[in-house]
Every structure is written in C-alpha cells, then in structure tokens.
Amino acid sequence: MDIPMELLRFNLSKVRIPEPTNRIYKHECCISFDTPKSEGGLFVDMFSFLAFGKDYVMWNYEKTGNAVYLCIKQSPKSHSPENRPFKKPTLLAIGLDGGFDNQEIEYEETYSIHILPDNVFLQWPSVELPEKVRLAVDKILIAEDAERKQQVESWVADKKKVSIFAINLYQINAGTIIPSSGWKCCKCDKVDNLWLNLTDGMILCGRKNWDGSGGNDHAVEHYNLTKYPLSVKLGTITADLEAADVFSYPEDESVEDPLLADHLSFFGIDISSMQKTEMTTSERELDQNTNFDWNRIEESGHEMQRLTGPGYTGLYNLGNSCYLAATMQVIFSTQHFQKRYFSMQSLKNAFIAAPADPTVNLNTQLAKLGHGLLSGRYSISETENQNGIQPKMFKSVISASHPEFSTMRQQDALEFFLHLLDQVERANVGKPNLDPSRSFKFYIEERLQCSSGKVSYNKRPDYILSLNIPLSEATNREELDAFNKLKEEKISQGTEVSSEESVRPRVPLDACLASFSAPEYVPGFYSTELNAKITAVKTAGFTTFPDYLVLHMRRFVMEEGWVPKKLDVFVDVPDVIDISHMRSKGLQLGEELLPDTVVESELRPELMINADNDIVSKLAAMGFKYSHCQKAAMNTSNVGVEEAMNWLLSHMDDADIDAPIIYENKNEEIVLPINEASVETLVSFGFKEEVAVKALRASDGNIEKATDWIFSHPEASNPIDMDASPSNPHSSTDSDLPDGNGKYKLIGLVSHVGTSTHCGHYVAHVLKEGRWVIFNDTKVAISINPPKDLGYLYFFERINS
C-alpha cells in the first residue's frame, strides 16, 4: 500500500486549482522572510495559496487544517558566477537590457508535495499524482506571484511626453543664428549647462543646484519674465533628436518636441553637424543612481566595520524605497515598537490573531518586519555581501491606503513617517496600551492675543515638531562673509568656487527651537471682541512632552516662481536637549478669553453675503485677483458685474484689500468657492488636492502664499485632523498621552541627499549599544562620523530621571 499517495487522496478536498483572481504567494513566507532559498525551502498551501517557511508551516496546519503543500526549493546553479564584472548601465531601469544589473546568482528549482502532519513527501513531477494535484501545481508554477503583481520588476523612468506647446510653438524671427559650438550664457560667463530658448533664441544657463553647482538660474528667470515655454539643452543635440534634452517650464518637466528639427533649423542649426558634449537630465539622474558615494551622509571614503546579528539587519531597496528603509530602522530602535512587535509579540500569536490572509494585516506584517530586523535570523553573514530582508509585504499593506507609496518613485520620509503612525494608530484602535504610535504623539497649544488684551487658546495633536532654520542666526558669519566675497571674485573672473572652498552657514538647534517659540504676528486676525480685523500675537508651546520627540528640519523652501530649493546649511544638534521651557502655561490668572461668537447685528454687511460665483468669475476673467473679485461682489450685494468692477477700481489701493475675508454668519462658517485653476496648479506641483484646497483657503486664494503655507505646515498632509479648534485651556483631551520632563537624548536621524524630497537618497544613523550605526539599505556598519548636522528628521528619546 502506498501510504503517501493514500494520504494525498484522503486530503484532496484541501487542494484547489487556482483561478485567475486568486492571489498566489510562492516567493516569500507570509509570516517570516523565508524564501525558497532558505533551509528547507518554502511551502505553498494548496488551498489558500499562502506560503510558509519550514519553521512556520505547522502553525498554518494547526490554524486551518490545510494539509497539502507544494514545497519549492532553490539552490545555486553550479556554473553561476558569484562575482560577475560590473557593467555600467545605460538605461534608467531595473531588469532590462542596458539597465541596472541586480547581479543575482542563478538558481534552479526543485518541487515536491508535502503532507502534514505526517511530514511525508511525494516527488513532482510525477504521472502517478492525482490529476487535480497536477493541474493545481501547474497553475501555481505558471501564475504570476502576488507580490510581483504589486511591485514593478522592471522599473523604468517615466517616458517623456510630447509637450502641449511644441506643435504650435511661436518663434520670433529676429535673424538670430546659433553657431554649432562656442556658446556662452547671455547674462553671465557660464559656458556649460546652457539652454537655448526655442522661441527667441536666447542662450542662458540652467538652474543652480543645492550644492552651488549648475548654472545661475538665468534660463528660468527668462521664462518667468517672457513665458516662452520650451528650451533645449545645448550639447545634447545630435541627429538622434529623441536623445536631446528639451524642458518645458510651464509643464515643469523634460518633454518631447516632435518638431525639434524644424525649431532648431529656424535658428540655423544643422543637427547633422552637432555633437554630444553634455549629459542630459536623465543621464545625470542615472549617474546619480550609480554613484551613491555621497560623502558625508553615506560616510564614503571610510573603511567601516560591518555589523551582523540581532538589530543589525539591512533592508533591500525595492526601487526608490530608501525612505521606507531609513525610517523603519529608526522606528524599530524605539522601545515601544520593539515591545509591541517583537519582544512582547510572538510571531505565532500574531499569526493566530491575524485574519485569513495575514499579508493584508498591518499588525501582522509589522510583527514580521520587527522579528526580521531584530531577531538576527537574516543577518548572519560575515562576508561583504551582508544578508538583508525585502519588506515587500509590509510596503504593500502600508501603501494600500496611500497610492503614492505603492509606486516605485521616491517619497518624502516625513510624509511616510506620519502616514505610518496614523495607520498604526488605526490598527490599534481601542487598545491604547498596545499602540506604540502614542509614544510619539503630543499636543501643541497655540495662544492668540488680540489688541484688546483678550486671548484664545487652541490645541492640536501632532507627531513631529517642524522647525524653520533661521539662517540669520548662523554662528560663522565671518567665514560666510569671506566666502561670499571670494565667490563674487570668482564669478567676476569667470570661474567657480570649488567644493573645498565652499562654506555653509552653521545654525544651532537652539536657534531653530527659539524660532518656534518666538511670538509671531498674525495680520488679518478677526477679533470677536473688537468685531474687526487686527494683528494678533501668536505663541505656541507643548501641553505634553512625548516619550520620543521627532524634529523635522525645514530644509526645503520655495523660491520665487514656486521652485523648491534645498537649504545648503549645517544645523548643530547636540546629543542632549532640554525643552522644558517650551511647555505651555495655559490660561493665566487675569487673562480673559475672547468670546466664541459675534453678535449678529454687529457683523459688517459684507460678511453676511455670499459672493455671486458668476460675478466673481467674470471679474477674474478680466485679470483681477480672485479674492478682490469676491470682496467686490460681497460689498456691492451681488448687484452686478459693472457695480462690482466700479467698487473694485475705487478700492484697489485700500490697505486691507489683500486681507483675508472672514466668512461668518450665525455661528456657521461660509465656505466660498476656490478657483479650480489654482487648485490644479498646486496639484501639478505634487500636492494632494485636499491640502491644496486647505492652503488656498488659508491664503485667500493666492497660489504663491498657499505654496509657502504648505511648506510651513507639513502637518497639513498628516491624515490626522490638524485643524485647530477653540478649546478650553483646561481640556483633558491630552491627559491620556504620555508626558514627562522635557530633557531628551538624540538616538537617531534620517538624512537626505539630493535636491528634493522626491529624489535622491535617504540614510539612517541610529545610536545602538553606545555607538552610532549607519543603515544604508542593506549596508549596516559602525558609523565613523555620523552627519548630525545634516539631518532631515531627528529622533530624541526622553531621559527619565
């Protein structure tokens, strides 16, 4: 009697033939980071199609009773070289010819049928197996893995789109002829990084990079002045016009110009005589992706000692996922996350408590990630190619409610951190004692004082303290003045300052904290006491101090023309800080609160009327400012366009014409319409629509002010409702949060290299066992010189007395 075959036939009800809609996992265990390459292989449940490592498959049998599994094992092919020569990529792609070679060893797979709880195996393929089993195995093996459906294996930079300005581009016939070489910027002495404007033939230098390299911004300044939309980078023009670097300023991206040959011919350029002498924007991006030796932050040039074992496991980059890797390494260095998802949470209990599909449960995947990072199971190699783990399932579940994080594009580590804590809070709702996100949460109380002397207090929750960097408080003013003088001399001589000669401002963290606490004047504040708009004084302070304080340095600001710029500045951050003086004192003896509402009869007439949308849109079409049109319609009681225009023309010079409109009527807020074009403009900058609307409302519809508002209110993108609402200063809404003294020690930082939060690279440094450790994707080593002055996010732990 063939016992294994009889056992298989007995359990045929536990075998399903996969349907096209079934999610099949065959590359990684759903509760650990075991793969077919792991010892014992990977076991695919032939009923649920979930996969388990050899140490975990019995848990699934005990939970579900599913007894039949396809065991997949992978072993290196004997002829597969482990150290193939590196081939420089020519395409910004992964897994395609010319793209990045992942240098992986080739493996061969073997299969068998495994039956629990008897632990018997049947070889596959075999004609003796029941037809249902053979069909099921065939379907599993040819099916695309569920993880691969969610992750693009061949990642390629977005293909350039045809510019909407290319077909009907207007060109000025001024007799301009462009030579085939010897170009120079029309406004400075730059002879490289030059752009030819395709409308008027002006040759101007490109944008200045955050590190001082690049051009002097003359090309973009020319666009801001003329609005001529397209420019082509000189030195990238050849007979292969598709390779030319054409940039559209209004579309703010590299584009394709299908009529480029004609547009160049207009200025006497014969493409057949042109030779390539400059890198395109995409090539520079490619070069950046192949050279992650970015000195200070990555500590390049140092021979660092690799670390392995518990707590020293790296995270593979899944394609621009360094923002996730750096953030999670610091998060799992905190005691609360370690306890919740590792030391006080066994994997087995997490799996038992999980729903039928543990791959879509955040708490289960956080436990999996915590055990993967902290157990040391996947960090045992002493070779240079250190082992690590691929957080694919975690990335899938954490991005399910945030589509941007599911892409292969780079993301903002701050935005990811806030999204993570929001999701962790939701996953632990009703279990405050288990929720580790509470260790980061605190309340800020804002105090507004009007000229009457009366005050109002508002509280809002937050996870981060976002700080401006006051460059005026730099401690190395003499060195900066000398550097600026040298720079002017170099420019006058037609040369550039070398990186060795560059001097960055040094601003102490205390100055950043003082900037947050300093009184701020708020013009246009409507006083319910005076029934008028006045300039109020705002101060802010903590009502609770969290167990872990996260400081966000606002290194990214908006320049004129809404161009993001990274501040080239050092911030001197000490190992220990004390912010006890930043605690809010609340309502003081003798202070009187502003009334909540205004008597209806005292409201100004214009505040009682909604602006007529038709009148406003017609005035706006004439070129008037949108908020001015609203005021004109409201102050003329919506009689008509002519009356509103007459009012507007006679009040253009009013001192308060740009002051915010107060919409209040019978204690209800009147929400006036926002210009949809303004919303679309902000969305095109990469902001979410709801954030754009909120910013425009706070900025009276002014796009530039709204952009500044977004960058100065990073919490606006936090899913938590951050709108401050009047509250009793003695309210107990914050009483259930952790609180203690205001003394903290630095335990980690996330640093960023690059010109924008949505490109470049993130690296984490964590204080572990009395020494600083660098976590650079899978690279984990003792840090020689942690870049404490270049951090983007700083993590502090409270020092308990």
UniProtKB/TrEMBL annotation:
| Pfam families reported in the protein's UniProt record | UBA, UCH, zf-UBP, zf-UBP_var
Q: Which CDD domains does the entry mention? A: Peptidase_C19B (cd02658), UBA2_UBP5 (cd14386)
* Ranges for domain UBA: 610-651, 673-713
Q: What class of enzyme is it?
A: hydrolase
SUPFAM superfamilies found in the cross-reference section: Cysteine proteinases, RING/U-box, UBA-like
Q: GO biological process annotations for this chain's record?
A: protein deubiquitination; proteolysis
Keywords associated with the record: Hydrolase, Metal-binding, Protease, Repeat, Thiol protease, Ubl conjugation pathway, Zinc, Zinc-finger
Q: Which GO terms describe its molecular function?
A: cysteine-type deubiquitinase activity; zinc ion binding
Swiss-Prot/TrEMBL catalytic activity: Thiol-dependent hydrolysis of ester, thioester, amide, peptide and isopeptide bonds formed by the C-terminal Gly of ubiquitin (a 76-residue protein attached to proteins as an intracellular targeting signal)
Where do the USP domain residues begin and end?
A: 313-799
- EC number(s) stated in the UniProt entry for this protein: 3.4.19.12
Q: Report the function annotation for this chain.
A: Recognizes and hydrolyzes the peptide bond at the C-terminal Gly of ubiquitin. Involved in the processing of poly-ubiquitin precursors as well as that of ubiquitinated proteins.
UniProt record similarity statement: Belongs to the peptidase C19 family.
Q: What is this protein called?
A: Ubiquitin carboxyl-terminal hydrolase
Tell me the organism's taxonomic lineage.
Answer: Eukaryota, Viridiplantae, Streptophyta, Embryophyta, Tracheophyta
